[in-house]
Amino acid sequence: MKKKFILVCFITSFLIFSKISFAANDETIYDKIDLFGEVLGKIDKEYVEEIDQSDAIDAAINGVLQSLDPYSAYMSPETFEQMETETRGKFGGLGIEVGMEFGVVKIITPMDNSPAERAGVKAGDYIVKINGIQVQGKTLSEAVELMRGPVGSKLEVTIRRKGVKKALVFEITREIIEVKSVKSKIIDDSIGYIRLTAFNENSSKQIKNKIKNFKKNKINKYLLDLRNNPGGLLSQAVKISDFFLEDGEIVSTKSRRSSENRKYFAKKGDIIDGKTLLVLINYGSASASEIVAGALKDHKRAIVVGENSYGKGSVQSIIPLKNNGAIRLTISKYYLPSGKSISGTGITPDIEVTESSDEFRIGTETDNQLDFAITLLNG
């Protein structure tokens, strides 16, 4: 009974300190809290193997968050520290952005030239096994932990892909992943190509500098490549959209409280002076990428080419906790200038161009989408 008492007190304290308030006469909630403590007590006493109560509580907290949507999750102090390391732009791993769907890890996008991308992993793939261990039933944090390991070590990942009957098995070597969010080049002496792989703190500044250099070379057509870009900072999506617009709404966010709803508008001044702009997207384009592509499409400022995007129409906030961990919580949903939410539907391109084959790689000789965009701009 002592263990049960400790567990019940822990959960009750968690709810209080998390500022979750209940009506005084809401007995059902407290009955559930008591039931939860009873279940954990039974598990601790009767389960076939001894459990770590701390891990069990972490899993319970994470279960609550992941029942809300695929993007909310609990991060232990260790996981939170790892995430902070990764946001600094250099870390060891496979180079994939992942989420949870149907109890399985779903790949939102592989990063450019990452071990996963080179191995043939694609956006939309489902990871079902990691080194032979079933992923279904595990939390996202647990699955990510299985993928971590020393740089240079190998990892076997079993994947299910839509349209492919047999499971695909990839052996991937972990590497140091360096995130370079902006790349650029001049194509055919007239097209300024900008590849944006993530929306981090310096993305808008880097793009602005790239465009300044393009202007020195008298570039008159621009191509913004957002394929396999999983998103990032909302503020950067707004700034980058604003670069190409003279006025009008870029995006709006709606929260639980109407007082926290926001609308973001473009300031006067298109930095490429109204010149032709084409945006490339695919299924790996998510969140902030969809804000930019959607805003430019709604304002008829750019031609959007490629495949339907991912459909992540929500904003997450990282909220630190007293135990030095954190929660990633969905705090608002965003809407395009047309008023449309892209949750679950994504951005539909003006011109659909699908990947040509399994050998397709972004920015290589097999990149038929880029070839099409260049031909269209030169036409």
DSSP strand (E) fraction?
Answer: 25-35%
Please summarize the sheet with the most strands: 6 strands, antiparallel
- Find the structural class using helix and strand composition: alpha+beta
Question: What's the number of structural domains?
Answer: 3
* CATH topology (fold) name of the largest domain: 2-enoyl-CoA Hydratase, Chain A, domain 1
Q: Could you give the count of β-strands? A: 19
Overall 3D geometry?
globular
Q: Mean pLDDT, as a whole number?
A: 87
Radius of gyration in whole Å, from Cα? 23 Å
Fraction of helical residues: 25-40%
Give the CATH class of the largest domain.
Alpha Beta
> What do we call the CATH homologous superfamily of the largest domain?
2-enoyl-CoA Hydratase, Chain A, domain 1
Structure description:
- The longest helix has 20 residues, at 27-46.
- The protein has 10 helices and 19 strands.
- 36% of the residues are buried.
- Strands 3, 4, 5, 6, 7 and 8 form a 6-stranded antiparallel β-sheet that branches.
- By secondary structure, the protein is of the alpha+beta class.
- The protein has 3 domains: 2-51; 73-177, Roll (Pdz3 Domain), CATH 2.30.42.10; 180-316 and 326-378, 2-enoyl-CoA Hydratase, Chain A, domain 1 (Alpha-Beta Complex).
- 32% of the residues lie in helices and 27% in strands.
